[in-house]
Design goal:
39% helix; 13 strands; alpha/beta; two-stranded antiparallel ribbon
Length: 390
């Protein structure tokens, strides 16, 4: 393949062509069918499920089987798998492929959450190169004709970087693309993403697309990342929290870059626009959960993100974060000033928890060797959590 697989402003991932080179990052508890459908209504891209644990999927737990379901409008069904056992991950990929449950599979090697890394999973796993290679090779074999991709971080911390070696291993194992969140596990989501690392990875990975992730808050950011790093596409996570119309901005920016339209426009929603998005999100959640009560519980966590920067009183914000039904939601939305204008930069930029740098929780003596020892195997086995979705 050529070194830059993007096609006419789009992106090729194996046999899949994405109109614009944009991927919705898997986010636990966020990127369920409802949120993916909402984002898709605003713009183009590849929309990936929240994390599905391989063990839970193979065991066909009710939660996992519900999370892998896609709406008929989701024409490219992308599922992210998490796992630490090569056989289990391979079996999960084989199940998805054999039963026609997905069109694309992504593997999670970027989770920095302590309950995962302290057992050697997530962002800690690429340090053990033999285990990392075995998992990818097993997953690629299980996926068969389905494109298998990976998402990873730079490494554990600045003294234990893994992304270049891991990228080479993944390319050699037959993945269809590699996404890099340009932070280490110890950085969590703090500070500024190191886009130079994306460019460094792109310079050594020439057979498959390299996607950049980290600090994409606008269409302008996405274009700037691609121009600065020469990456083939962007992965968007926290930037779309409470702002699913970011995908409209991204679509416009990339169409402008490809010469398909004359302007790259920024959606500047008034409060009425935001209110309608909240209502639509809630409707889709009711359909997903088949429960109005569960849907309202779920949409609560999105309220602060949706209302960021807008002039909404603290009392009303608090009541919206406790919504109990669609009628209750309608009543609360009715109290908003729908004519309130877009507040500018106050509504833009960082959203979601950034946290602060912290020492990554790791298994005892994990960093002493790049290969998996007997003690490591016992610890890693405990990281095969059986709950999907985070």
């Amino acid at each position: 393949m050529v070194s830059s697989p993007a096609i006419a402003g789009g992106l090729a991932i194996g046999p899949i062509t994405v109109d614009v080179p944009v991927v919705l990052a898997p986010m636990a508890g966020i990127t369920n069918t409802a949120f993916r459908r909402l984002c898709r209504e605003y713009g183009a891209g590849l929309y990936v499920s929240e994390m599905i644990t391989s063990r839970a999927l193979v065991e066909r737990t009710p939660a996992s089987m519900r999370l892998i379901k896609h709406h008929e409008s989701e024409t490219t069904r992308s599922i992210q798998l998490y796992g630490v056992d090569p056989k289990t991950v391979g079996d999960a990929a084989r199940m998805l492929a054999a039963e026609g449950l997905a069109d694309h599979i992504d593997l999670n090697f970027g989770c920095p959450v302590p309950k995962v890394t302290r057992k050697g999973g997530g962002a800690a796993l690429p340090w053990k190169t033999d285990l990392f290679r075995d998992i990818i090779e097993s997953a690629v074999a299980g996926a068969g004709d389905l494109p298998l991709t990976i998402k990873m971080r730079k490494g554990i911390d600045s003294d234990h970087l893994t992304f270049i070696e891991a990228g080479k291993i993944a390319q050699g194992a037959g993945v269809a693309s590699i996404a890099l969140h340009a932070r280490t596990a110890s950085e969590y989501y703090s500070g500024q993403a190191d886009w130079n690392a994306i460019g460094e990875l792109k310079s050594v990975i020439t057979d498959v697309p390299v996607l950049g992730n980290g600090d994409i808050w606008s269409g302008e950011d996405a274009i700037r990342m691609m121009e600065q790093t020469d990456c083939d596409g962007v992965v968007v996570g926290r930037g779309c929290l409470g702002r699913p119309w970011l995908f409209a901005d991204l679509t416009a920016a990339f169409k402008h870059r490809a010469g398909l339209q004359t302007e790259s426009s920024l959606v500047q929603p008034d409060l009425g626009f935001v209110a309608q998005a909240i209502r639509r999100h809630a409707e889709l959640l009711v359909e997903f959960f088949d429960s109005e009560e569960r849907a309202c519980r779920d949409v609560r966590k999105h309220m602060a993100w949706y209302l960021k920067g807008y002039s909404v009183g603290g009392d009303l914000r608090s009541r919206m974060a406790l919504v109990t039904s669609l009628q209750h939601l309608d009543d609360l939305l009715g109290e908003l000033d729908w004519s309130a204008p877009y507040p500018g930069l106050a509504a833009e930029g960082q959203r979601g928890r950034a946290g602060t740098p912290k020492k990554t929780a790791l298994p005892d003596r994990w960093l002493e060797s790049r290969t998996l020892g007997d003690a490591d195997r016992a610890t890693v086995a405990e990281a095969e959590i059986d709950a999907s979705g985070g």
